[in-house]
Structures are given as C-alpha cells and as structure tokens.
Specification:
By secondary structure, the chain is mostly helical. Helices cover 51% and strands 0% of the residues. It contains three helices and no strands.
C-alpha cells in the first residue's frame, strides 16, 4: 500500500504508538528512493530485477517508483 507524503508520517506515528503499547522499543527504517530512480534506465533495472528471485511485493514496490 502506497501512502502519500502527508499520510505517511501520521500512519507511521499511529503504528509505532500501537507497537509501543506492548513492546519496550520499536525499530523503524525509513528510506526515500524517489530520486534514486530518476538517474537509471527503468527498463534495464526491471529486466535485471525480474531475473532475481524476489518476492512479488518487493518487485512491485520498485515498479511503483
């Protein structure tokens, strides 16, 4: 599920808050790949990724960018 820039921080805060109710700490990894994909040939990248044994949701995440 892709979230907008406005709803992403709110959604993250909600999930972290809920997790902190039952956990001592929560680890978050936030990565912004949006500019990284502006400099490469998308057709070449996708053809190489399809040759790997990636889960469909990982491949779809890259395709969405």
């Amino acid at each position: 599920m892709m979230l907008s820039l406005t709803s992403s921080p709110l959604s993250l805060q909600h999930h972290v808050t809920r997790l902190l109710e039952s956990n001592a700490y929560v680890r978050c990894l936030i990565v912004d790949f949006s500019k990284a994909f502006d400099t490469i040939d998308h057709v070449i990248l996708l053809s190489k990724l399809k040759r790997l044994t990636l889960a469909n949701n990982v491949l779809n995440l890259v395709i969405d960018f």
